[in-house]
Structure formats: structure tokens, C-alpha cells
# Entry
Amino acid sequence: MARRQEADALRVEIRQLKDELARLRATETTYREIVHRTNSIVLRWDPQGRVIFLNDYGQQLFGYTSEELVGRSVLGLIVPDTESSGRDLVAMIHDLLRYPERYLANENENVRRDGERLWITWRNTPIVDGDGRLIEILSTGIDTTERKRAEEALRASEERFRQLAVLDDLTGLYNTRHLYQALEALIAEGAAAGTVLSVLFIDLDHFKQVVDEHGHLNGSRAIQEVAATLRGCLAAPAWAVAYAGDEFVVVLPDTPTAAAIEKAREIRTRIRETEYLAATGRPVRLAASVGVATYPDDARDFEGLLALGDQALFAVKRNGRDGIVAARELDPSAPTSRGAAAGDGDDAADL
# Structure
């Protein structure tokens, strides 16, 4: 009797084990089905960075079969050596394998078999044994390429709008809004650091004649070409401003008066030696008058600096044009307004 009961109990236990095994197999089948059908990448890789498993979605996304993937390193396969930005992904992957707890979530550029770059947002789960040794990493990823591209386009658009807010439409030089804001900041920095700053006020001589003879459209083209001449004469941190019509301002950080005068001479020479409107078949030669003012020698705020640069420019105009005058050379008794500087009115505003 006892043996029969033991046999019956054993048969029940075996039946229960078979039922549990069947449930586990069904669960595993369901799990595998979910993993393969999910619209996310499921990647298992070992501590050496080699692929153990990639689900169907991942295989289709990257363009490889399981046989082509398993046992191969993710580097050079689905992870490029460097991102488009230049980030070293080889170093990143090695660091991830060494310190997986630091990379529970990360985003990086990946690569398809055909060479197309993809951005993937990864969630990584380190799998360890009883002694805490890394066995593998389970990574799930979402293709965020379109979002990334949209973000980059938005950033580029925002940057373009920021540029448009401070750039002159005709010349591409900075506009007066940027001049006032940046010059005030530069003078504040100069006051703190004890540095100097010079400005050049540049006016094209007799430019109204160019407009009268060649028309307003060609006048605008000539202004654009003069702006290109100015850019060719300047290196950072210097920059130029389209001030008004045929007038320009050049800002020269860390430049004392003597060096600013030398730069003014260079600019005048380049303008004089350049043929403008050459593409029209009727090239013109131009000359320029330049006023120079320096912070803190001539003025201690940006309004005063600009006013003195303007006065120095019109001192040149008053004395026959085509020259350079520094603010320190101004005669306090001389007229300082534009109208007084161009007494007959023929060049008070060339455009």
C-alpha cells in the first residue's frame, strides 16, 4: 500500500513538472515572440562587446541576419568608430563595457549595413552572476533619428534667426543693433581687464556719383563688394558693421590708436586698389575717409566713443576727404555735426 501511494505521488509530481515545463516553454515562446515583434531593438552582447542576440526588428533596421551578427563585435558593425560630430565611439564602448553602471541610458550614432547613420536612444541593463561579474548587457534601443534631425534643424533655424537679428541684410556685416550691444559689453570687459579698444568710422568718398552714374542697384552691389573688402582686411576678434548707407564701422578689440591707424591705412589702400562693379563692364574706383577713436584714451563709454569716431570722420570730410583723423587730433573749436562737416551738403549723405 505504501509503495502504491509513493508511486501515485511520484506520478502526480512528474505530471506537475511536465505541466510546469510546458508553461515555461509557452512563456518562453511568448517572450521570444514579443521580443522579435516589438518595434524596438533588443540587443544582448557579452563583456567583450560581441553580439549574443539581436531581435528581428534590430536585424531589419541594421540590415544584417542573425548569422552575420552573432559573435562579432558591435564596433565597426552597428557602431561606427566615430560619430559625425567626431566623438570617439570606440572609447565610449570600451568605457561602457568597463563601467556599465555609468551607461544605464545613453544616445549615440549607429550605422546600418548600407552606411546610413542612425541615432539610437539606448537603455542598458548589466546582467551579473552571483559574484557580481558581468555576464552580458541587455540593451533596448529606439530609433530617434528623425527626432534628432528635427532638433538639429530647429537649432539651425534658431541660429539663423539669431544671426538675422544682428546682421545687415545687404552686406552680411553686423548691424547697428549688434554694434551698440556688443560695444557696450566690450567696454565693460575692458574696464574690468584694463584693455583698450578702437573703432574706425569709414565713409566712401563721393559715393553719390557712383549711384548717379550706375544706378541704385549697382550702388547696392558696390556696397556689398566694399563689405567683402572689409572682411578681407579683418581677422577675429575684429569685426565690421554696416552703419548707414555707404558708412561702415570697424571694431578693433585690444587695439591702441597707433595700431588702429595702421589698420585704417590698410583698409583705405585695399579699397583704393580694388575695382568695384567689374562684372558690369564699367568698373569704378573708390576712396574712403576714416575717423579713429579709442577707449579709454578718447572716451570711457560706448556712446562717447562712437560720437568721437563720428566727429573724427567728419573732420576728414571737412578737410577734403580721402584721409584719416584720430579723435585725439580733433580741434575742440571745430564744428562737430555732420551738417557742419559737409557744409555745402553735397556729401552729408552719399546715399
Summary: The two ends are 121 Å apart (CA to CA). Strands lie at 41-45, 51-54, 105-111, 117-128, 134-143, 197-204, 239-244, 247-253, 288-295, 324-326.
